[in-house]
Amino acid sequence: MSEVVKYDNKMNLLAFKGVTKLEYDLFFSVIARLKDKGTQEITLSYAELTDKINWNLTNEEIRLALINGAEKIVKTAVRWDTEDGTTIFSLFEKFYIPNSKEPYLKAKINKTFLDILNNFKNGNFTMLELAEFSSLNSKYTQTLYRLLKQFRFTGFRSIKWAEFIEIMDIPKSYSMGDIDKRVLNPSVKELSQEPSLFEPNNPIFKKLQYKKFRGKGRGRPVEKIEFYFMPETKDPGEAKKNEKALQYIAQDIKKEQ
């Protein structure tokens, strides 16, 4: 059975700047094992960390990825708004990586992070499979996967363009053509690809497509992007209705293009 990572939806809005795919995989592997541990310090071997992720690495490669990834992730400030006020904090209180002869790490989360990792309200969480997440080809696909998993029962996600660029960590130097070619099209293709002998559970998001909405100002800049896909349902009638609606959406997108 695949290991499941569960966290408050607010974590999907965090932009992990400069994090590579490997660092992403290791981070979520750590998060999965910190679940329900409170603020206690835990020790994880490299074998435990990589058990569910699709990498064949030396201990030194894992160590360097942990160091580089931790440096980037601790710089990610989390904003937590409540009725009483706003708290800004980093995710980890401690992240210790010994020398290369000791293949393990020690981690302890910030006490405030408990509200994201454990104390979220019913229904207000994202759940993803660690092995499935790790199998994705790029950090862009992984980030889009997280953004859409939260809406797996509605099949619809709308997000402001500037916020999308920020969360996806897309370089400012990318033109719109670059974003389509290097980010959106490959990610959508991978997340919606048909089943195969090696990936019988595909597609992750059936009939996934997107539409960009432009403003009326100079150059008609993109203001938001919407994603559409088949929502998860066990009702055959509802599934048929959703599939027909997606066909109409696809026709509209094709006309605009």
Report what the structure shows.
- The termini are far apart.
- This protein is globular.
- It has helices at residues 21-34, 46-49, 59-73, 114-117, 130-135, 139-149, 161-168, 176-191, 236-256; strands at residues 4-8, 42-45, 78-81, 86-89, 92-96, 104-109, 125-129, 156-160, 209-214, 222-228.
- With 257 residues, it is of the alpha+beta class.
- The longest helix is centred in the last third of the chain and has 21 residues, at 236-256.
- A three-stranded antiparallel β-sheet has the order 2-6-5. The protein has a three-stranded antiparallel β-sheet with strand order 8-10-9. A two-stranded antiparallel ribbon has the order 1-7.
Indicate the topology.
Blueprint: E1 4-8, H1 21-34, E2 42-45, H2 46-49, H3 59-73, E3 78-81, E4 86-89, E5 92-96, E6 104-109, H4 114-117, E7 125-129, H5 130-135, H6 139-149, E8 156-160, H7 161-168, H8 176-191, E9 209-214, E10 222-228, H9 236-256
Antiparallel strand pairs: 1-7, 2-6, 3-4, 5-6, 8-10, 9-10
